[in-house]
Amino acid sequence: MSNMLLKTNSPGWMATFADLMALLLAFFVLLFSFSELDKAKYKEVAGSMRDAFGVQREIRVREPPKGLNVIAREFSPGITQETVRNQVRQFTTSDSLPYPVLFKSNIMQASTTQTQRFADQRMLADRRRLEQALRKEIDDELIELEVQDNRIVVRLKEKGAFPSGSDKLIRSFEPILVRLGDVLIQTSGEIVVAGHTDDIPIENVLFRSNWELSMARALTVAKAFFARSTALEKRTHLEAHAEFQPVDTNETSAGRARNRRVEISLIYRDDSPGDEASAEGRGISQGLSSVAAGPAPDLGGRAGNGASAQ
Where is the OmpA-like domain (predicted)? Predict the structure, then answer.
């Protein structure tokens, strides 16, 4: 054996060196296998460096994304966000203020509630005035007083106000309109005077239809109010509905008698008290100013020749 070693060309220390390198390789392999790279700690350190140099992420990543199943080839995607480059962002919210600002909708809602409460107070006060001034006529069933959504309706029945088929007031009813006009001067809101008839047609030399009769009666009542105060002209407009808005049936005489009426409505809108009426109402009132300025003309006061006692 010794003879064979003496015949090799390599030096004798080569065997010792080769054994040393093999042992070192095994040693470093063992060291590498024992070591463990803490990726989360590495990313946290890298994040601290980015913060120090002015780069900040909105969401800190402490662990890399992992799949729960190594066999699965597809993973559910996460929520992506657009990346803004070369932009400095600064946010100022109302939460940082000592008194946060209310939303516009809350402000509008509070304003609407306050306006509605004010309108309800006006309606209640005006209703009391009307009830006190017209108590006797309400008890005698010559006038009806009704409160609706945003209005007070004073309903003048025909049996105490107008003769059959005429637009001339009964003389005993004139003081009632004087008292009603004085109360309207103290009230607020838009005034609508509307004439109504039953469904039986009328045609004579004065009125060719129920439309003309209902408008003539509404005009007569309005002029009685204007005689008390010209300021009411700016708040008043007229309407004629003929037989198309009944409050009772037209199948009976009692129902037709209720339908023949003049209604004075006090409408309370969202505007402040004392405001003028709508443009339409002002236009009609101004058109009637020349008629209302003078005394109410006597349109004959004669009953029509129609089939109905309007």
Answer: 149-270
